[in-house]
From TrEMBL, chain A:
It comes from Chelatococcus reniformis. This is ABC transporter ATP-binding protein. CDD domains: ABC_Mj1267_LivG_branched. The keyword ATP-binding applies. Keywords: ATP-binding, Nucleotide-binding, Transport. GO terms for cellular component: plasma membrane. SMART domains: AAA (SM00382).
From TrEMBL, chain B:
Pfam families: BPD_transp_2. InterPro entries: ABC_transp_permease, LivM-like. It is found in: Cell membrane. This is Branched-chain amino acid ABC transporter permease. It is a multi-pass membrane protein. PANTHER family: ABC TRANSPORTER ATP-BINDING PROTEIN, HIGH-AFFINITY BRANCHED-CHAIN AMINO ACID TRANSPORT SYSTEM PERMEASE. GO terms for molecular function: branched-chain amino acid transmembrane transporter activity. It comes from Chelatococcus reniformis. Its main location: membrane.
Length: 265, 346
């Protein structure tokens, strides 16, 4: 069912991808049970290359859990996750990262004691060989990319300060920069604008736009305006199941979705 | 690391608003400690030089634990196992095979420590799921306890009495006996190991370790093989502990089960917590201060010195959880910087 949806509607920015190509990410029939609680009940998520995909739903509907199942932080009770032509259902988080998955959790987790520079370097050097790390062989090579990332996220002038000195919003940017630094194929962002001012949110949207050229995005957000502005397609979760999935227009017109949001509002 | 020293005029008054570059005190401490270590034998009487040599060997042992705990975040509560195994190993080489050449016994001691740590580390750290701190500390503690009991019960290893009168270490025809010569040997080895550790913890590998220590869960999602990093640090720690155990066996001329056991394992934990884990020099200072204090207290207050020492340790650990070194070294400097921010395209 999941693959059917993608072929039915070609992704908007398919840059050189064949229309019928396999989606970049296809999580299907995901069930996740925590003790007695079924957090996900047959949820799915399909993302095409270069697509910006929004994942929305009420609190506790399982958005973060679905993201974690994709990233490998949780193992689905049943279901499968395919990424970039491979089955990664049982792969370790490190293997998924090496395959091109990158994420920012809902809870900000930059390394506060390290400088901004070192936070980015830490993310970038993860694929350096062990000998390369011991002899610091990639420190010079990666310098430009570290500074480039910091400039892109408007943090370059604070490169030498510890991350703990940043405001909450800037820490979120730093973490997005860390997630993007290794040039992933798919970036998962769980509530990246939590705690940001309106202006910071707007800038975040701007900062994310250019990554579309080389990367797909799954973003969880409560701010529906923000989601509408940057996403191509949406998936709506409610109580662990997918209520609907499709283009932004399609979702806005969907009576079921209206009902859930009206019910809560 | 060395090339990022700041010129004095570039230093603004350090304040929390401008935390740009604080004065770096660690290199100064390192140089002061080195200078003291170099002249100590000329100041002290002979019997104290022998004591000081023992302290250097224990400082090397402390360094091994600091690497494992202060940098790798692995609570090895049985570090004496590696020290003791190597000590017994070289004692047997000397006693049964007449092998005493420094060129053989010290590499052998290092290798014994390394192998023991690889075995135990592989078992404790490379499981399917990441091992918890409690699991690792209990696992290593148990190893140390078991080895102690085994040595006590095993006739071949001398049982309770251990192995007495190990022949001295030799270089060609020359015997290296306690005193000046052994002191500078131990100091040289300590310096080399210290520099190697320093190189390692300031490298990109050290940055990965910092990430591991600060937020292990996070860095796995960057693609780090966290368990491998840990196993490597643990093995290196074992190798250094083994080297110090080998030196100890020849310096003292005997080995006994206590050097494998839990009490000795705890002692090294105290050295490092007291001095300040996560700075290499802190481990050295901790070992020196505790050993010197015990030595002095046990002479001056023969009856109650363990209590005084205990209270001192407790005070430091309660009020200075980051150890004595944190009195002069800031948290920022302790963590340090691994890359140098600057313009692009240099
Ligand atoms: N590790 C866990 N153990 C037990 N229950 C969990 C765990 N993680 C999540 N849950 C439960 O699963 C359900 C879905 O949680 P999840 O965090 O995925 O929701 P969410 O859609 O991200 O909500 P929010 O919008 O508040 O972030 C919730 O009822 C939550 O309490
Ligand atoms: Mg959530």
């Amino acid at each position: 069912m999941a693959t059917g949806m993608v072929t039915a509607e070609a992704p908007p920015a398919g840059r050189g991808q064949a229309a019928a190509a396999e989606p970049l990410l296809a999580a299907a029939d995901i069930v996740k049970v925590f003790g007695k609680l079924t957090a996900l009940n047959g949820a799915y998520l399909t993302v095409a290359p270069n697509e910006f995909h929004g994942l929305i739903g009420p609190n506790g509907s399982g958005k973060s859990t679905l993201m974690k199942c994709v990233a490998g932080a949780e193992t689905p009770t049943t279901g499968s996750v395919r990424f970039d032509g491979r089955d990664i259902t049982a792969a370790s988080p490190a293997e998924r990262a090496r395959a091109g998955l990158s994420l920012k959790f809902q809870i900000t987790s930059v390394l506060p004691a390290l400088t901004l520079y070192d936070n980015i370097l830490l993310a970038l050097q993860a694929r350096t060989s062990l000998a390369g790390l011991v002899f610091s062989r990639t420190r010079g090579v990666l310098h430009d990319r570290v500074m480039g990332m910091l400039e892109q996220f408007r943090l370059a002038d604070r490169a030498g300060e510890p991350a703990s000195a940043l405001s909450h919003g800037q820490q979120q940017w730093l973490e997005i920069a860390m997630a993007l630094a290794p040039e992933p194929k798919l970036l998962l962002l769980d509530e990246p604008t939590g705690g940001m001012s309106l202006e910071e949110r707007r800038v975040t949207g701007e900062l994310l736009q250019p990554i579309r050229a080389h990367c797909s995005l799954v973003i969880v957000e409560h701010d529906l305006d923000f989601i509408r502005d940057i996403c191509d397609r949406l998936t709506v979760l409610d109580q662990g199941s997918v209520l609907d999935s499709g283009t932004v227009q399609h979702i806005q017109a969907s009576p079921q979705v209206q009902e859930v949001y009206l019910r809560r509002a | 690391m060395a090339n990022e020293t700041v010129s004095p005029e570039a230093l603004p008054r350090a304040s929390s608003a401008a935390p740009a570059k604080a004065r770096r005190v660690l290199p100064i401490i390192e140089i002061v400690v080195l200078a003291i270590a170099l002249v100590v034998p000329f100041v002290l009487e002979d019997y104290l030089t022998i004591f000081a040599t023992r302290v250097l060997i224990l400082a090397l042992f402390a360094l091994s634990f600091d690497l494992v705990w202060g940098y790798g975040g692995i609570m090895s509560f049985g570090q004496a196992l590696f020290f003791g195994c190597a000590g017994y190993g070289v004692a047997l080489l000397g006693r049964d095979l007449d092998v005493t050449s420094i060129l053989l016994v010290l590499p052998a001691a290092t290798l014994i420590g390394l192998t023991a740590a690889l075995l135990i580390g592989g078992f404790l750290l490379l499981g399917r799921n990441p091992a918890s701190v409690i699991f690792v500390s209990l696992g290593t503690l148990t190893g140390s306890y078991a080895a102690d009991r085994l040595a006590r019960g095993w006739y071949y290893l001398g049982g309770q009495n251990g192995i007495p009168s190990i022949p001295p270490m030799s270089l060609g025809q020359h015997d290296i006996v306690e005193g000046l010569e052994f002191y500078y040997l131990a100091l040289g080895i300590l310096i080399v190991c210290y520099l190697l550790c320093r190189f390692l913890v300031r490298s990109q590998f050290g940055l990965a370790l910092t990430g591991l220590r600060e937020n292990e869960a996070r860095i796995t999602f960057f693609g780090y093989q966290v368990q491998h990093l840990k196993a490597i640090v643990f093995a290196l720690g074992g190798a250094i502990a083994g080297l110090s155990g080998g030196l100890y066996a020849f310096h003292e001329g005997f080995v006994w089960p206590n050097i494998l056991g839990v009490v000795f394992s705890t002692q090294v934990v105290l050295y490092v917590l007291f001095g300040g884990s996560g700075t290499l020099i802190g481990a050295i200072i901790g070992a020196v201060v505790i050993e010197a204090a015990s030595f002095w207290l046990s002479n001056t207050f023969q009856e109650i010195w363990p209590i005084i020492l205990g209270v001192l340790l407790l005070l430091v650990i309660m009020f200075r959880p980051a150890g004595l070194i944190s009195l002069i070294v800031s948290e920022r400097e302790r963590v340090g910087s691994f890359g140098q921010p600057g313009r692009r395209g240099r």
